[in-house]
User: Fold these one by one.
Assistant:
Number 1:
Amino acid sequence: MSVEQYVRAMPKVELRVRLEGGFRRETLQIIAEQNDIPESTKNYSQWLKLLDNPDFNRLDETIRVLASWLHYRDDITRVVYDLGVQLSKQNVKYAEVSVNPALFMVQGMSFEDFMNALNDGRDKVQRGWGVRLNWILVLPREEPRRADEIVRWATSVTGRKGGIVALGLSGKEDSQPIGQFERPFSNALKKDVPGVVQAGDVLQGEGILAALQQLNPARIVDGRGAADAPDVLQLLTDRNIPVDVSMARALCHGWVQNYAQFPLRDLYNADVRVTLNTDLPAFYKSALNDEYLAAVTHNAFTVPELEDLALNAVSGSLLPEDEKAAMQAEFRAAYAQLRSEHLSAEQTS
């Protein structure tokens, strides 16, 4: 077995993948035709082409338009199912999926109906493919007025029973001062709903530091600039806070020119609990196996270091501690067996 085959066989966890990252052209076309989208949407075919060949300067707009084609509960369930199938092909056993209700809750849909639609897809994925999904309910920075509503949903009995494990914050850091979100995140944490905060994409180290100090997140997403900010690195390691990165995202948005420039090695060597993720695989055209293989090919990660990254995702998840311990033991056993059966001593050093 080659290292590539080993990576594909490894059981994994993904902590940062957005629901819209599961969009498939074939499914969207079926949904669009059933909902009369080609007749009612200007430039329908051009929008569909932006899924195949994204314009990253128009990514948010493209996602909003494509998501608006979903009109019914079954449409949402189909997208969840598609994402679950894609995750299963990467040998992902568990994923925490970020969901922005503003994108997917069609007019007149109650929160209960929305959760039922998500969980219909989740149940089908678990029964059919053995992939377990939980949800991170996302508050866009551009919509601070929705904060109380999103927190209420995330902390409700319906939300918790429906698999919501965190409150997320996404969007451009410079759109709103982060202080606007301190109270909502504090209120959620008081009800045992932790925060997962996207930070660094615009303000880099300054933005990450503000998020850590004001929102007390369980995880940071992106973390752009962390490797160049000693005070941020110190805080991340002192608090043992995982950083969920997508190297494909950084590449597509021009933050790095190639995978080798991504500071994965710097973060890892600084003892940051870094995890590999895809974020928007439908648009960034990179699956989780590709991210792991890039760590080997471009960042000189060894097999034991890849296993560390994979186990970081397990320990950084928001599963109960006993379930995390059981999954870590299961993964370690699987890795040991795969190594002994298929890799040479040189490949595992």
Note: DSSP finds 19 helices and eight strands in the chain.
Number 2:
Amino acid sequence: LCPALAVDSLGRRIGNGAGHYDRFFQANPQAVRVGIVYHIQVSQNPLPLEGWDQPLDWIITEKMILRVSRRSS
């Protein structure tokens, strides 16, 4: 489970900027990547993506559960 400042419907996330979760996900590609945020933190616009960013598989808010990836995990 992964916190975020913001996420989008493509599974992109903005964290706190230290890259801890991105490094963990990169080192553990089998891990299911679940972002936990408030619904207001889901951006209607695509968030910027850097080369090291690791996308989420699921987004969970108090209003929805959204599968955003079809990667095998």
Note: The radius of gyration is 11 Å.
